[in-house]
What does this fold into?
Amino acid sequence: MASSSTHSGQPASENEQRDFPPTSYTVGWISALPTESIAAQSMLDERHKSPETRNQHDSNTYILGRVGKHNVVMACLDDYGPTRAAMVASNMMSAFPNVRFGLMVGIGGGIPSKENDIRLGDIVVSKPTGEHGGVVQYDLGKMEKDEFHRLDSLNKPPPLLRTAVNALKTRYDFETQISERATTAFKFCPKWEKMFLRPLSQDRLFGPDYEHVSDNQTCEECDRVYELLREERPDPAIPEIHYGKIASGGSVIKKASDRDHLGKRDNAICFDMEAAGLMDDFPCLVVRGICDYSDSHKNKNWQPYAAAVAAAYAKELLLQIPPEAVKSLRPIQNVHWIVPKSVNPFFTGRERILRELRGIFANLAMRKTPCINVSSSMALVVLGKASFWGVFWIDATTEDSIRRGMICAAQRAFNNSSMNFEDAKTEFSNFEYSWLLILDNADNPEINYEQYFPTGNTGNIIMTTRNHDCIKYGTAGHETFEKLDLEDAVELLLKSSGIKKEYRDENEAEASNVVQLLVRHALAITQAGATINQGICNLPNYSKFLTSQQKELLSDYPTQSQSTYGSVYATSEVSVQAMQRSKKSEWKDALALLQILGYFYRDNLSEEIFSRAWDYALNISTWQPHDLLTHLSMWHVHYLRRILPPQASNRDEALMSFGRARQVLRSFSLVSFDPQTSAI
It folds into this structure.
C-alpha cells in the first residue's frame, strides 16, 4: 500500500491515505477554532483515512494522522467554552480508547506585566506550580470576607509531558526552530502560507485605562500617547516561550483592569476558555500562542500566526517523546464505564452549576462516600470518562432494580458471576480504587436509599431524583434544576431547530418569544426545535402554533396543562398531531410505536422485545377469547402489524420498518436511542 508524503502538512490523496483502527491512536490533540485546526493539521507528517463509523451521539469530526512516530487524533470544538471542550474530549476518549494523553493547542490572551514581558506571537505553556496543575479556573470559587476562595485545583499534566517540556527548554536556539517550522509548514498551500504569516501590523500594548477607539478593527487611530514603551527585542520575529499558569474560564476577558486583577490574583500569564474543561478528565498540556492582550484592543490579525507557533511547539514536543514511553502509560478512559446513556448533543448552558459540580468532583477523593443530587445529563457532562476507575449506572426506580443493578455492576467490575447483593455491596465498600455509582430516577418516597449505599473511603454516588426529600442523602450537596437562563434557552432552541450559525442572530428575537412561552423548560424547547427542524412549521409561526395547542390542551386536559410540565405536554401534542395528519407511512408507524411504548413503565427497552413478538406472532394461526388473558396472540400484536409487518419476508426487513419508526420518534425528541445496545 502506498504511503502518503512525509512532508509536514502535505495532504495525501484519498487513495494514498493509510487506514488504521481507532485503537492505534495514542495522542489526542484538541483545537477550539477552525484556524487552530488548520494549523494543527499542517503539522502532520502523514494523513490517515478518517473513521468510517462512529457513535451516533458523537458530533466530533476527527482528523487522523502521524506526527513523528505517534498516531494522533485531532478534533475541533464547534463552540467556545469549557463545557464544549469537556464533551469533545469525552467523545474522543470513547471513540479512541487507547489515547494516553492530550494536547490543547491554540490561541490565548496574554497577561503582560513587569515580570513577564509577553508579546504577540509568543508562546505560553502551562506549568504546574505547587498544588496547581498549570491551569486555574478563574471563575470557579466564592467570596468570603472580601477574599476569593477557589473551589478546586485542576490536575497536573502527565509526568511524561512535563519531562519533555523540560528537555525542550534546554535545546539550543529552540525558538528559532519554532519560528522556522511555523513558517515552512504551509508551503504546500499558497493560500494558507499567506494567511499564517507573521502579521505586518505593529505589536502595540496600551495602558490599562485607555479603551480602544470604537468600531475600528485595528489600532491605527488609537492615541499613541497611551501606548506603553517596551524594550525592543533583538529579533522581534522570533517568539519567546513562557512557562506558567493559564487562567481558564467561560467568558472572554476584554477589560485590561479585569486582566490585571485576575492575573495578579491567580499569578497567571495567559487566558483561555477551554482548558478548565479538560484538565481533570483529559490529562493534557496546554499550549497557547498569544494573539492579543485580553483588553479592548483585541483584533483577529494575530490569530493565525499565534495558532501556527503554538502548533509548531506542540509538534516539537511530540517529536521529543519516545513512542514506547507513551504506550507504557495507562489509557485515559475508565477501566469500567457501564452507562447506557450518552450526553445529549444539544446540551446547553448550566455553566454555573457545571463549574460548582466540577469543584465538588475535583475533591471527591477526600470525602467518605459522598452523595450529590443532580440530573443524569449534567452528571455525564461533568464526569467525562476519566475521574474514576469505574462508573456504573443503576436504575433506582424500584428496590429490585437497584439490587439487580448493583449485582450486575459488581459482576462485571470484579469478574464474579456468582455474587448476590450483599456480596456486591461489600466488594464496592472495600475496593481500593475510586468508583462512582449513578442512581438514576431515585423518585420513590417509600424507599430508604441509604441502605443500598456501599461504605468505604473510595466510593462516590450521584442521585438523580424528582423527590425533594432525597436532599437528605446529599452529603456533598445538591442542585435543583429550574428554568434555563434566557440566553441558554434561546441557544438550545436555535440548535435543536437546525438553524445554521450564520442565521441565528436574525432569529434570536423570535426564538426568545418561543422559549418564554415554553417557560424555558429544556425538554419542551428541544421538542419545539424538533418540530421546526421537521418543517412542520417555521420559527416565526411557532408561537401562534403553540398558543393554539395550549388552549386546546387547557380545554381537554386541564390537569396536564396546569402542571409543572404543561409546556412539555403542549409541545409533545404538537408532534403527535403532526404524525396523525401525515400520510407518510413511517410517521404512522411511529405513532403506533409511541402508543406501544406508553404501556412500558421504564426506558432502555431492547429491540429484541419487539423482534421476538414478531417471531412469535407469525406462528399463531387462531386464537380464542380466553387466550387474551393467558397467551400472546395476534390480537396483542395488532399494533405491531405496521411497524413489524407479518408479511415481511424476513426479520431484517421487519426490523428496518421498526427502525424507521423509531428514527421518526427520535427526530421529534420524543424518545432517545442507544446505538450500541439498540435500546429505546
The radius of gyration is 28 Å. The chain has a mean pLDDT of 78. The chain has four domains: 22-327, 336-473, 486-581, 604-667. The first helix runs from residue 34 to 41.
